[in-house]
Amino acid sequence: MNHVKTAGGKSPQTLGLVQVALFAALIFVLAFTPFLGYIPLGFTRATIIHIPVIIGALMLGPTKGAILGFMFGLTSLINNTFNPTPTSFVFSPFYELGGIRGGFSSLIICFVPRILVGVVPYYVYRGIRSLTPKSNKGQVVSLALAGFSGALTNTLLVMNLIFVFFKDAYASANKVASETVYKFILTIIGINGVPEAIVAAIIVALVGRILLKTKYAILK
């Protein structure tokens, strides 16, 4: 039986595993390097881990991007279990604060948005690229919007799922009234989520433009 080989002598399946492993290693290095992947802000954590997930999705496709998003969620689960903040119960069913405990809903919040971070930017890039000129400028715009959309996918889904599943508990942990907790969530989105999205747009545009020129990238 003949096996297709890449230019480097590896089969496509082996090369795919190596690529996913490299991106996953970067995700874990960022996640477990203090004050790098997860930056504590008291009431929450800022993160840059969505960036390698987005770039991985653009290079390797949405299936492998979803795997990388799962890895992102796994680092969040580990971090919030063993290095918790007052609101870590929204990400970990194994953490309890003052009688407030996470549950299965915590796993949904922890994993579903992060998996989609590895899927949504791929299709945003493809959609925008089909509408923009086939030029370097068109590619940069497409990459920037893909990065922006990936970061906002994470922030908007996480914060809105927190409101759906943990409205009262989240309000109590942050010492705000339940009736004003969504205003508090919107503040976090504005202060934390929007800057994260802008940073992601810039980095994905700069780095993605270089990486998409390689022979290993699915998108161009």
What does this entry look like structurally?
The chain has 220 residues and is mainly α. It has one domain: Arp2/3 complex 21 kDa subunit ARPC3, CATH 1.10.1760.20. Helix content is 67%, strand content 5%. It contains 7 helices and 4 strands. The protein has helices at 12-31, 50-60, 62-82, 104-117, 120-131, 136-173, 181-211; strands at residues 38-40, 45-47, 96-97, 100-101. Strands 1-2 form a two-stranded antiparallel ribbon. Strand 1 and strand 2 (45-47) form a beta hairpin. Helix 1 (12-31) runs parallel beside helix 3, helix 2 packs across helix 7 and helix 4 (104-117) runs antiparallel to helix 6 (136-173). The two termini are 32 Å apart. The model has no long low-confidence stretch (mean pLDDT 90).
Sequence of strands across the biggest β-sheet? 1-2
The rounded distance between the terminal residues' Cα atoms is 32 Å
Choose one word for the global shape: globular
CATH topology name, in short, is Arp2/3 complex 21 kDa subunit ARPC3
Going by helix content, strand content and strand pairing, the class is mainly alpha
Number of helices: 7
Please indicate the percent range of residues in DSSP E strands (runs of 2 or more): under 5%
Major sheet: 2 strands, antiparallel
Mean pLDDT: 90
Helix fraction, binned, reads 55-70%
Number of strands: 4
CATH class, anyone?
A: Mainly Alpha
**N to C succession of SSEs:** HEEHHEEHHHH
Count of structural domains: 1
In terms of topology, how is this protein built?
Layout: H1 12-31, E1 38-40, E2 45-47, H2 50-60, H3 62-82, E3 96-97, E4 100-101, H4 104-117, H5 120-131, H6 136-173, H7 181-211
Antiparallel strand pairs: 1-2, 3-4
